[in-house]
Structures are given as C-alpha cells and as structure tokens.
Design goal:
- About 30% of the residues lie in helices and about 30% in strands.
- The chain has 2 helices and 5 strands.
- It has helices at about 50-65, 75-80; strands at about 5, 10-15, 20-30, 35-40, 70.
- Strands 1-2-3-4-5 form a 5-stranded mixed sheet.
- Strand 4 (about 35-40), helix 1 and strand 5 form a beta-alpha-beta unit.
- The longest helix is centred in the middle third of the chain and has 16 residues, at about 50-65.
- The protein is globular.
Length: about 90
C-alpha cells in the first residue's frame, strides 16, 4: 500500500502509485486545512487510485489532529460518500 507524505514546499499531500505521483493541494486556513485540488495521473484514473489518495490524505490529516474544508469537488464527494471521514469537516 502506498503511503501519503506531506510536502510542505509544494503545499500538497503526495502518494506514489504505480511509479507516478497523485496529490492533493492544500493551504492552512484559520481553523482547518483547505483542500483545493486532487490530481491523479491519467493512466491511473478509474482504478481506485483517487479513492486511495483521498483516504490516505484524510487519514494523515486525522493523525495530525486537523480538520478540513474541502474546496476540491472530488474530496468533498468522497467525504460525503464515506461516513468515517465526515467528522473531519470543519
């Protein structure tokens, strides 16, 4: 299983999947992390890579003790469909 890492220099969470990097960009809000955009390489789309990325990012954010404001439609939809992550919403 791939691991998510926080890349502060690029302002994103990254996950290597199949030799490519999928990521979610973020910024620090006043009380929560704002998740702006998720990107999965085209070759990995439709194979569950986006869901693995979203879950990994949200698990990392939970471990950090943060809340989120999902501005990214993909992440917002993922949270809406996954009750286990709804407690992370700011």
């Amino acid at each position: 299983m791939s691991t998510v890492r926080k890349n502060l220099e690029r302002g994103r969470y990254e996950m290597e999947i199949g030799g490519a990097i999928a990521f979610v960009t973020f910024s620090n809000g006043p009380r929560a992390l704002i998740l702006h955009h998720a990107e999965v390489p085209a070759a990995l789309r439709g194979k569950g890579a986006g869901a693995r990325l979203a879950a990994g990012v949200l698990d990392a954010i939970r471990t950090e003790g943060q809340k989120v404001v999902p501005r990214c439609g993909f992440i917002a939809d993922f949270i809406a469909r996954t009750p286990a992550y709804q407690d992370l919403l700011a």
